[in-house]
Every structure is written in structure tokens, then in C-alpha cells.
Design a protein that fits this description.
heterodimer, A: alpha+beta, BirA Bifunctional Protein, domain 2, 2 domains, two-stranded antiparallel sheet, 11 helices, 11 strands, 17% strand, rod-shaped, B: Phenylalanyl-tRNA Synthetase, Chain B, domain 1, Phenylalanyl-tRNA Synthetase, Chain B, domain 3, 19 helices, binds zinc ion
């Protein structure tokens, strides 16, 4: 009997001595072990398991002896063998799961990335600042019940001047101010031409916004280009007054620049409106104070006001010319230059940049 | 126009400081362009609108303030000598000269002006010359009436003839320029020759000098257009011409003459003698009938104001209601003819700031331009695909633009370009027939700044006209240009070099965003594109554009050192095509079997041909065919390439067997072999 016991002791002992190399590492949590070494160790551990728990292992040999032991001792012996076996397996399991955990975490560690590296994508493109501004203005007016209109850029004198009540001797008609084609047609000098065509087509009542290119014989400089964009607004209906003009322009500018924006209307002169006015709005940079960060505000040159455009009540001659009875209907119109507004918005010092297509410029807007 | 704060307050005591006055002027329509201090005075630079010639003087501005502030105007004491018509002055051209007065002042002593006069002129930016010239300037700034003093003894026969210049006549003007006059120029002449350019500038030889003893003072009124055209013809704009062009007060001529003559006599110890006035056609005052001006006022301004108040503010401006109820417009106003003008005046005096703010009551729903939603989608899609939006002038250089083919859909065969008369930018003499030359200029601009990787698009109008004399066609085009390498966000590393297929991909993306049926590319020769790398683009079988590599010839003229790919499409034509609508087909029930074929074909055989041969061959159970890849180079003969395609077989009724697919596939292979002379690998 002691013979069997000795045998079990020796199984235990040889396991312990051979497991020693694992238990040491286990105790340290495999500290500092390379992933490859750990994977090698894992392989060794699995060989070790076969050696100590496989069919040919000493403990399996001891299992086979159970039947041969005297019946009265068989139960005790069996219990001992089972005990040793589960102990061995438990130790190996523990080592294995610990090692696997170590391997998993080493792998995770090796896949660590710098999440601040850039995302993978195409460089994005940019819309032209004039497009961005035009769309914004169109959105506002569409929500206020206006239809967006567009029409010819090359016009007859009738649409460019006569229909707009511009007198025959007005300097604007001079080829010093207006471009003409060799066929004698005018490049429209204001988008008001669209008003005329729209009124002819749609009659009254009408509410339209007409953005578009216009042409004037200005030599290019920082604030002038011979081609630029205007936006024209027109509202003709029964009982339209200057109060509606002021209300509409002011509401639009408040939606552009914030609810606190104030507007100012000054008497002025345009052949196609009577009464006529120019409109200013309170400077968005200095909130109309004329001072910015202790200095004279550069955007409004210290006045607190930014001049934007012209407006007025549509001249009776213009309405009548479009077949609208000016005794029944009245209306207002307004217009302004988009480049100027764009330059103010982005603090541009030279509007010629708008048409040079320099990507260093284009890529600043979105 | 410069206005002195102090001088103005002599004419109307405003009771306002300079800043308040500036604000007030602005609000009644006299825009302040600038303000500066001068000694103990403040000078306003006022921008007067072109219809308000009557405001181009201290009196004119004072009149406005007097009405707006309801303060009396203090006009200086002016003698009221009456002139009469004499033979000294003859107007030969009454169409251009409405009135001419000549005052003779004898025994003058020309000398420096007194201090008060020098200072007043200095305030409004005028240099003192001598006491006579200074008074003429002074009265112009005071009353708005330009005038000119001649040395009477230098005028041949001491008389004046107002007439058009004769052929070959010329004059040396006060600025010492010799000026040739043509027959359209109105001249003030003596018995023989021109002594002044009417309304613009006097002559040097007939001018007042220190030796002058006797003076003829001209105060006249000319036709506005005549003066404008002379000034523009001679390229000479003066304080006088500026005022005459905008209109002076014809009924104020005599008073202005009396004012100047009496001051001259006083300062020079001269004696006033003969006073001639030739006034062929008397001014007829404008009268506006407005039976219910209060209603009209409310209708336009939205403000209910009593007729007494309205009439009161008009009175202040010199507009009086006649006994018959019509409003009589003063002779200095040239800008009033209809009741709306009266409304404007009353509203201006009442103050635009007192008009309320209201939104018109809602009527119809707003709407974008019918094509705008699709264009917006197009712009957004292109921008998110890395394209920057370009915007170029509508003018181009005809010489440069001539090198580029136009989009074919632009119109009839006999269409021609729209040319501009007298362009302002050198070389910008043509309304662009295409966007291409603008985009190429954009490439050049960017290359100059060492920006080599570019993807640009532009949406804009192009112009053409046909011989029928109808107004030009204006069509919206869509242009693309790409060059260099792919640009990736956040890295300085440049990507793959872009080629034709990047351009084609962008065009296809554009087509998708517009919802068009597929755009078809067909090899074609295009004037400005490299042969063999150029295509015509078709929509529903109609040509709508072109795409390809910029020809070496053009690239060389621009000194481009890298390939540039350019495309242009007729956006108007594309947008006139209906959007395709999605349709649902039932999901496949039975699995498909796919087979690849690699075939070696001559370069002349296009992928399109191969795909059409397969898809149009009526093969059994053929579901779809798609492109896999192309190979040429190592192992291939020159002039041929290998193309791999993938064919999917499927039945809607059952699962196919390998055997039936093999049979069909063999048919496909044989057809490709025989029809396209393809070798199968
Ligand atoms: Zn400001």
C-alpha cells in the first residue's frame, strides 16, 4: 500500500518540480514577456498538459491501477488519485487562462493606434463665396414668399433703360457707362431688367427676387469690377407702401445678421422708383457703435452704418409700361451688390479676387 | 461738393452742431461722403444725387435745411437792377443757350481779394486768384450759378455771339490747353472767334488780368445735354460744367448777376453800367395736379398726414399750391413732374425714419427657380467630391477663346459669337462662348502660385447669337478642369496622378446628382483636346458636351508642364431632360452563377463594344455583364490588351445547373471570338 502512496507522491512531486517554471512566471503575471515568448510558452503549456494529464501521463497510469488495489483500499486510493489529477489540471488551467489573458492583452497592446492620426478621405471641395451668399439670401426670401427669377444678361435698350424710366439723355445710357455688343445690344447694367420681364410675364400681384450678373464700364480696382452680381427684389400688390419696403428689407437683414440689426433709409434718386431711398444697416462688426476693440471700426469706417443698396416705390411709368395699373397696384423694389456684401461678410479687401479662381482664395469658404 | 458749416449757418441758423447737422443732411437725402475740420470751421463733403442740381450750392443746401427744420432762410441783400435786351449779345443757338446776361462793370481795379473772401473760398477748396475771379467763384458756391468774367476790351467789337463752333476753330482755355472745337461744341464768341467754351471754361486770352479796366460778366443758362456732351468730348469737367449738366435756376440768373456785379463793383471800385439779358423763351413753371395729395401720400408712405401738414412742408421747399389746387414747382427744381414726386418731397421732409415697418400680408408661397434645386444638389455633390467652385468673368479674349471648340448643343450651325464694343479690360472683347478658356486661365493662375493639384468646376452662362438678328442665346454650361494628383485631406502626401478617368468619374457623379439618364462617352475628335484622349458626351443620343486631355498645342501656349483634363457640358440641355425615376423590380429568388472571361482584343475594340456584344447577344439566362479590369503591357503584343468581364447567369424560375451555364457561356465565348476577333485566355 505504501508503494502506491509513494507512487502518488512521486507523481505529485515530479509535477510540482516541472510546473515550477510556469508557476514562477504566473506569480509575476508574465511581466515583461514578449508576445512571441508568451505564445511559445502557451504551446509548451499545452504540451505540458498532455505530458501530465494525457493518456500516457503518470496520473493516467495511476488511474489504471485503481482497479488493481485491494477492494477495501480502493475507494481511498481512487479518491487520492482523483484529487491529484484535479489538482494538476486545476493548476494547469489556472496557468493557461492567465497566460491566455496575458496573450490577449499583449495582442491588444500591440494593436494600439494613435487616434489623432487623420481620417482617410478626399480633400473636400468648396463652393464659391458668392454662391454661398446667394443661396443664403434666396433661402430667406423664398421663406418670405418670393419667387426666384432669372433672365437675359444681354438686353435691348428698351429693357435696360426705357422700361426702367431712364431718360433718353441719362448718363447711364452713355457707352462710357454701359457695355454694348457690336450688334448694338446692351449688357444689362442692373438686374432691374428682370423686374420688367417678370411683370410682363406674370402681371400683378408679384413677388420676386432676381439674382444675376450685371455689367458696367468700371475699370477694375479693389472695389470695382466691370462685371458683378446684383440681387433685385420686387413686390407689387394692392396697398403696398413704403412701410412694407422698410419692413421687408429690415426683416431680411435681421435674418442675415441677427435680430438686433437696425436699418436706416435715406432719401435718394433712381429713375425707376419714386419715392427713392438708399438703405444702410447697423454694422455687424461693431454692432453699430462705430468702435471695435477700442479702435475705429474698419468695417463701417467708424460710422456704425453699412451702406448696402437702393430701393423705393416702383415708378408709375414702370408699372404702366408693364401693363400694370398704377392706380390699383403699388409696389416696392430694392437692389444691392452681392460682391460688396460678400466682401463685408468675409472681410475681403479686394473684390477682384472673386473672379481670379485662385484656390488659395476659393478654399477658404464653405 | 464741399459745404462749409459756418457759411451754411449764415444762410440758415440751424442751431445744430456739425455732427447733428451731418445726421440731418443724411436723413433728408444729402449724403455725407466725408467731414473734416478746417480752422474753426467744419467742412462737409456732400454727395448730391444727379437729379438735384439745385442743391449744388450753400443756398441750395440751406433751402433744404430751412424746409426740414422750419427755420427761415437769410438771403443776403441783393440789388434788383433790371436788365434789358441789347444788341451786345446775340444767341444764334437758342436750343442750347436758354438765357444769356452780360453786365458791364467799368473802371475796375483788379487786385487781391479781401481776407473774408479768401477764407470762404479756401473753405470750399478754391484757390484765390484775384478779386474778380474770386467773386464769380464765390457766388457760384453761394447761389449755385456758374459765371464768367471777360476783359471787355479784349472782346472784338466788345460783343458776344453764342453759337456752335465752326469747323477748324480752336481756343486756348484758362488751363492753358489748346483745344480744337468741333461743330457740336457751343462756344461763347466775340465778333470773330470763340472766347469761351460755353458752360465749361473761359478762354485764356479774353480773361481778366491785372491790366483789365472794364469787365463783361457773363451769367447764363445752357442746355444740360449740350454741356454734358461738350465736357465729355473735351474730356474737361469743371465746377461750372458739373452744375450746368445738372441744371441751374434759369429764373435766378439775373439775381446771381446782380449779386456778383455788386460785389465786384464794391471790391474793385468799378461802376455798374449796361445790363443785357437775352432770354428767347421764357421758363414755363411745371405744375403738378394732385387733387387728393393726402390720399396719395398715405397710399405710398403708409402714413396718414393732414393735407395742411403736407402742403406746409412743400411750401418750405418753395412748392406752392395754386388757387386751382395744382402744385407749382420752383424754377430751380428740375426733377419734379408727377404726384409721386410731391409724395417723396413731403415724405423726405416728414422723415423716412417716421415711416413704420410692416411685412406685406402673405400671398403666394415662395419658390426657387425651377432648375435651382438640381443645381444646388450638383454643386454640393461636386464640392463633397473635392471640386472647388470657380467663377470667371463673362468676357474672354476672342483670340484665346478661338482655340476652343464650343459645346455642340449651343445651337445652329450659323451661330456666331457675341462681341463687345470697346472692351475695358484688355483682351476681354467677347462674351464667352464657352467656359473652357476661363477655366484654363484659372489653371494658369494657380500654376503661377505653385498650386499644381486642381479640381475645379464652374456653372455659368455662355453666349452665342445667330444671324437671324434675334437676341443672343444664353445657355448655362457646366465646366470641369482637373490636373495634377489626387488631394487627400489632412496629409501633405500627394495622391495618385489624375487622368481622363478621374474626369469621367466626376462627370458621371455630376450626372448622378442631376438624376439624368446615363451620360454616354464616345471617342471623338475635339478641336482643343488631344486626339485619342477625347470624347463626346451624349445624353439620350444627343451630344451635350466634351471631355478629354487638353491638346499639347494649347498646353504649350500656356506653358503647362503637366497634363490638364477639361470637360464642358450643356447644363441647360441636361436640366431640360426629365429626371429618371426609380422603379422597383422584385428581388431575385434563385441564386446566380458568375463566370469571368478574359479576352485579348485589338486596341480598336472598345469595352463598350464588348459589353454591348454580350448584353445584346440574346444569350440564354444571361442576367448581367460587368467590367472587371484591363491589362496591357508585359506579355501582351503592342496594339492589343486583355479585358476581363464578369457575366452573371440567372433564371427567374429555378436554380441553374453548372451544365446549362457552361453551355450558354460557351456561346458567349464563341460569339466574342468571332465578332470581335478576340483571343480567349
Ligand atoms: Zn462697424
Amino acid at each position: 500500500m505504501s508503494e502506491e502512496k509513494d507512487q502518488l507522491d512521486s507523481i505529485k512531486e515530479s509535477f510540482e518540480s516541472e510546473f515550477d517554471r510556469f508557476s514562477g512566471l504566473l506569480k509575476d503575471g508574465f511581466k515583461g514577456m514578449k508576445l512571441t515568448a508568451a505564445e511559445k510558452l502557451s504551446k509548451e503549456l499545452s504540451d505540458f498538459r498532455v505530458k501530465h494529464t494525457g493518456k500516457k501521463s503518470p496520473i493516467s497510469g495511476a488511474m489504471k491501477l485503481i482497479g488493481k488495489v485491494a477492494p477495501e483500499k480502493r475507494a481511498d486510493f481512487g479518491k487520492s488519485v482523483q484529487g491529484i489529477r484535479s489538482k494538476i489540471e486545476g493548476r494547469i488551467d489556472e496557468a493557461e487562462s492567465s497566460l491566455n489573458r496575458y496573450i490577449e492583452s499583449s495582442k491588444t497592446e500591440s494593436e494600439r493606434i494613435d487616434v489623432t492620426l487623420p481620417g482617410r478621405r478626399h480633400q473636400k471641395g468648396h463652393l464659391h463665396p458668392m454662391t454661398i451668399l446667394r443661396q443664403k439670401i434666396e433661402d430667406i426670401f423664398v421663406s418670405m414668399g418670393y419667387a426666384i427669377e432669372d433672365d437675359r444678361e444681354i438686353e435691348t435698350d428698351y429693357y435696360n433703360f426705357d422700361a426702367l424710366n431712364i431718360p433718353k439723355d441719362h448718363p447711364a445710357r452713355d457707352s462710357k457707362d454701359t457695355f454694348y455688343t457690336t450688334d448694338g445690344l446692351a449688357l444689362r447694367s442692373q438686374t432691374s431688367t428682370v423686374q420688367i420681364r417678370a411683370m410682363e410675364r406674370r402681371g400683378a400681384p408679384i413677388r420676386i427676387i432676381a439674382p444675376g450678373r450685371v455689367y458696367r464700364r468700371d475699370t477694375p480696382d479693389q472695389t470695382h469690377t466691370p462685371m458683378f452680381h446684383q440681387i433685385e427684389g420686387l413686390c407689387v400688390d394692392k396697398d403696398i407702401t413704403m412701410a412694407h419696403l422698410k419692413g421687408t428689407v429690415s426683416e431680411w437683414l435681421r435674418r442675415m445678421y441677427g435680430r438686433e440689426t437696425k436699418t436706416r433709409f435715406r432719401p435718394s434718386y433712381f429713375p425707376f422708383t419714386e419715392p427713392s431711398a438708399e438703405f444702410d444697416f447697423s454694422c455687424f462688426k461693431c454692432s453699430g457703435t462705430g468702435e471695435f476693440e477700442g479702435d475705429k471700426c474698419g468695417t463701417c469706417r467708424g460710422s456704425g452704418w453699412i451702406e448696402l443698396g437702393g430701393c423705393g416705390m416702383v415708378h408709375p411709368n414702370v408699372l404702366e409700361g408693364c401693363g400694370i395699373d398704377h392706380k390699383v397696384y403699388s409696389g416696392f423694389a430694392f437692389g444691392f451688390g452681392l460682391e460688396r456684401m460678400c466682401a463685408l461678410m468675409y472681410n475681403l479687401d479686394d473684390i477682384r479676387l472673386m473672379f481670379e479662381n485662385d484656390v488659395r482664395f476659393l478654399r477658404q469658404f464653405y | 461738393m464741399l459745404i462749409s458749416y459756418k457759411w451754411l449757418n449764415e444762410l440758415v441758423s440751424t442751431g445744430l452742431d456739425a455732427e447733428e447737422l451731418s445726421e440731418k443732411l443724411t436723413l433728408i437725402g444729402l449724403e455725407i461722403d466725408g467731414i473734416h475740420a478746417k480752422d474753426d470751421d467744419t467742412i462737409f463733403d456732400i454727395e448730391v444725387t444727379s437729379n438735384r442740381g439745385d442743391c449744388l450750392s450753400h443756398l441750395g443746401v440751406a433751402r433744404e435745411l430751412s424746409a426740414a427744420l422750419a427755420k427761415p432762410i437769410n438771403i443776403p441783400e441783393i440789388p434788383s437792377d433790371s436788365p434789358s435786351e441789347t444788341s451786345r449779345v446775340v444767341i444764334e443757338d437758342p436750343k442750347d443757350c436758354y438765357r444769356f446776361t452780360a453786365r458791364i462793370i467799368e473802371g475796375v481795379k483788379v487786385g487781391p481779394s479781401p481776407d473774408w473772401l479768401v477764407r470762404k473760398l479756401d473753405a470750399v477748396g478754391e484757390r484765390s486768384i484775384n478779386n474778380i475771379a474770386d467773386i464769380t467763384n464765390y457766388v457760384m458756391h453761394e447761389l449755385g450759378q456758374p459765371m464768367h468774367a471777360f476783359d471787355l476790351d479784349k472782346l472784338k467789337e466788345q460783343r458776344i455771339v453764342v453759337r456752335k463752333a465752326r469747323k477748324g476753330e480752336s481756343i486756348k482755355t484758362l488751363d492753358e490747353e489748346d483745344r480744337k472745337l468741333d461743330v457740336s461744341v457751343l462756344a461763347i464768341c466775340d465778333a470773330e472767334s470763340p472766347v469761351a467754351v460755353a458752360g465749361v471754361m473761359g478762354g485764356l486770352d479774353s480773361g481778366v488780368t491785372e491790366e483789365t479796366k472794364n469787365v463783361l460778366l457773363e451769367v447764363a443758362c445752357f442746355d444740360r445735354d449740350s454741356i454734358r456732351s461738350t465736357s465729355s468730348r473735351l474730356n474737361l469737367s469743371t465746377e461750372a460744367s458739373y452744375r450746368f449738366e445738372r441744371g441751374v435756376d434759369i429764373e435766378g440768373v439775373v439775381r446771381a448777376s446782380n449779386r456778383a456785379a455788386s460785389l465786384i463793383a464794391e471790391l474793385t471800385n468799378g461802376t455798374l453800367t449796361e445790363f443785357s439779358d437775352v432770354y428767347p423763351k421764357r421758363h414755363k413753371p411745371v405744375s403738378i395736379s394732385a387733387p387728393d395729395l393726402a390720399a396719395e401720400f398715405e397710399r405710398l408712405s403708409g402714413i396718414a398726414l393732414s393735407i395742411e401738414k403736407i402742403d406746409g412742408s412743400l411750401e418750405g421747399l418753395g412748392i406752392h399750391k395754386d388757387s386751382d389746387g395744382a402744385y407749382r414747382i420752383p424754377s430751380w427744381r428740375h426733377d419734379m413732374s408727377i404726384p409721386e414726386d410731391l409724395v417723396e418731397e413731403a415724405a423726405r421732409m416728414h422723415g423716412y425714419e417716421k415711416i413704420g415697418e410692416e411685412l406685406p400680408r402673405a400671398s403666394s408661397a415662395g419658390e426657387y427657380h425651377s432648375l435651382e434645386p438640381r443645381k444646388r444638389r450638383l454643386r454640393e455633390v461636386l464640392a463633397s467630391n473635392g471640386f472647388d467652385e470657380a467663377m470667371s468673368y463673362s468676357f474672354v479674349d476672342a483670340q484665346k477663346a478661338g482655340a476652343f471648340a464650343k459645346v455642340k448643343a449651343m445651337g445652329a450651325e450659323n451661330e456666331r459669337e457675341v462681341r463687345i464694343k470697346d472692351p475695358i479690360i484688355e483682351g476681354a472683347d467677347l462674351m464667352r462662348p464657352s467656359l473652357v478658356s476661363g477655366l484654363i486661365d484659372a489653371v494658369q493662375t494657380n500654376f503661377n502660385h505653385k498650386a499644381l493639384d486642381l479640381s475645379l468646376f464652374e456653372i455659368g452662362k455662355a453666349f452665342a447669337t445667330d444671324d437671324a438678328g434675334a437676341p443672343p442665346l444664353e445657355r448655362e454650361l457646366l465646366g470641369f478642369v482637373i490636373t495634377g494628383r489626387e488631394a487627400h485631406a489632412n496629409t501633405a502626401l500627394r495622391g495618385r496622378e489624375m487622368d481622363f478617368f478621374d474626369l469621367k468619374g466626376a462627370i458621371e457623379t455630376a450626372g448622378d446628382s442631376l438624376g439624368t439618364p446615363a451620360l454616354v462617352f464616345r471617342a471623338a475628335e475635339i478641336e482643343h483636346l488631344q486626339k485619342g484622349q477625347s470624347a463626346e458626351i451624349l445624353l439620350n443620343g444627343q451630344p451635350v458636351g466634351s471631355a478629354g486631355k487638353l491638346s499639347a498645342e494649347i498646353a504649350n501656349t500656356y506653358k503647362f508642364k503637366q497634363p490638364v483634363y477639361i470637360a464642358e457640358l450643356d447644363l441647360t440641355a441636361i436640366l431640360e431632360t426629365d429626371e429618371t425615376a426609380a422603379t422597383y423590380s422584385p428581388l431575385d429568388v434563385f441564386p446566380s452563377i458568375t463566370r469571368d472571361i478574359s479576352l485579348v482584343v485589338s486596341d480598336e475594340v472598345s469595352l463598350d463594344q464588348i459589353l454591348r456584344t454580350v448584353s445584346g447577344g440574346g444569350f440564354k439566362n444571361l442576367d448581367s455583364v460587368s467590367y472587371v479590369d484591363t491589362y496591357s503591357g508585359k506579355g501582351m503584343e503592342s496594339g492589343e490588351r486583355s479585358i476581363t468581364i464578369r457575366i452573371e447567369y440567372r433564371s427567374g424560375a429555378r436554380t441553374l445547373t453548372d451544365d446549362e451555364v457552361d453551355m450558354a457561356h460557351e456561346d458567349v465565348r464563341n460569339t466574342l471570338k468571332s465578332k470581335l476577333n478576340a483571343a480567349l485566355r
